[in-house]
User: Fold Bifunctional protein FolD from Peiella sedimenti.
Amino acid sequence: MARIIDGKAHAAALREEAGRRARRMLELTGVQPGLSVVIVGDDPASRLYVKNKGEQAAAAGFRSETHTLPETISQDELLDLVARLNLDPAVHGILVQLPLPAHMDAQAVLAAIDPAKDVDGFHVINAGRLAVGLPALVPCTPLGCLRLLKAELDQLKGLEAVVVGRSNIVGKPMAQLLLQADCTVTIAHSRTRDLPQVCRRADILVAAVGRAEMIRGDWIKPGATVIDVGINRVPSRDPAKAAEGKTRVVGDVAFDEAVEVAGAITPVPGGVGPMTIACLLDNTLTAAARILE
Ligand code: GUN
Assistant:
């Protein structure tokens, strides 16, 4: 049976460390790390994420503010807010929650964020800096995955890593981080031929496809370390509850099968998820220390 990687415990430790670093920064320099989160519209899932981000930042002793804008706001009004936050010396990190309403061009909004304050690491400057190995603000989810891998494995050097998924938010930056850690990296995706066989090569398998339980137990090399980034809602196991519309959350990996084969695996929930906000705090501290200047 695989070891279960406790993302909640790792995230709690990282949040405590962020709190200590924030206090030390305030004492030594008078600077309180500040995070500004912007949300447009009232999608309940996004609202909940944003609430958690704000609360955890405040709990770690950061200056935390949330700008909640109506769905009907124009892109220019959003860009005006971003421009103000870029200039605000008390704001070190800016995060615009995605997705944005359909009438907005998300790339244009992300491009307007000062790269030095881009704690999501979504700006092309940060993506490019990561790709060429310069100091960069790196997307929080892959950063969280890397931390779990480093805690779990003595050495990443030389290991075969397969990343399933090629998004700008997870798959691509994850592959860059693993490459920097001297893994041999394959990026697989929905068009990959014989995906099960590609996955079987992996000493490290990162699943970030957004398809419930797609990766089966017999796709996994015995002893591999499996990081499941997926957060998928599926009907409850109990048919009566499912009939009432009750759901449960599962990953991209069929956990019950994979746990029999893998050496270590992250659960969903309680694996990668909690690490993401903890890494956002870490990135905000990095931004407050102004690494890009
Ligand atoms: N929506 C879902 N995940 C994220 C994230 O990591 N950052 C932002 N800005 N929006 C998201």
Summary: The chain has eleven helices and eleven strands. The pocket of guanine is lined by residues 95-98, 120, 140 (CB under 6 Å). Residues 29-115 form a domain with the Rossmann fold fold (CATH 3.40.50.10860).
